[in-house]
Design brief:
single chain; mainly alpha; MetI-like fold; flat
């Protein structure tokens, strides 16, 4: 194990950085996607409700590995088929899109639940002050909903971090993919995967501790 760390330590740290980069990018885009479709699902427009529901159900119903293959291989093939022969997606781009779509569907449900957890009287109070529905939502309801959403958002971050390992199937150089490379070079399966597992564990336990600390602060602030 020590030999693996000495020889491949730099590669492992770089792979961890790539894993965290992919996770952060995906979470940022997922927040945007989740906010859009979450608001669709709590609005009063039936067409938007239907669009939001279809997106969430469709994306959550497709395994991430299938979505990753579709984005990485299927989408470029389809676009090339209509004449854009030079169109390509690299592993980071395809991985970010796939993870963002997947995480965004779950984030939409987190945001929907967070908004619906706020007492309806808060919206009525905003409207009674002369605010529009949109202004009441952004200025009154959502700031209160965020308090309840933060622990779930951090938990989704942890899930997304673990899901990056699936993207080794499209060649993205994250921890699991690099672990396969090291294992192929050294033939030391147990030691290699033990190191990879410990690296994931350290990051995830740290995030879990942060999540619990934030949750305690939120609960004390109520």
């Amino acid at each position: 194990m020590v030999m693996i760390i000495q020889t491949y330590g730099t590669m492992l740290i770089r792979a961890l950085g790539q894993t965290l980069l992919l996770t952060l990018l995906s979470l940022v885009f997922a927040m945007v996607i989740g906010m859009i479709f979450g608001l669709m699902n709590v609005g009063h427009n039936r067409v938007l409700n239907c669009i939001g529901t279809v997106y969430v159900d469709a994306v959550r119903g497709v395994p991430l590995i299938v979505l990753a293959y579709f984005i990485y291989f299927g989408v470029p093939a389809g676009i090339q088929g209509i004449g854009f022969t030079n169109f390509r997606l690299n592993a980071l781009q395809a991985g970010t899109i796939a993870l963002s779509m997947n995480c965004g569907a779950y984030m939409a449900e987190i945001i929907r639940a967070g908004i619906q957890s706020v007492d309806r009287g808060q919206m009525e109070a905003g409207r009674s002050l002369g605010l529009s529905y949109g202004a009441s939502m952004w200025l009154v309801v959502i700031p209160q909903a965020i308090r309840t959403m933060i622990p779930s958002i951090i938990n989704q971050f942890i899930i997304t971090l673990k899901d990056t390992s699936i993207l080794s199937v499209i060649g993205f150089p994250e921890l699991t993919n690099v672990g396969k490379t090291i294992m192929g070079n050294t033939f030391k399966n147990l030691q290699t995967w033990a190191i990879i597992g410990i690296m994931y564990m350290v990051v995830i336990i740290t995030l879990s501790k942060v999540s619990k600390k934030i949750e305690r602060r939120i609960n004390r602030g109520r």
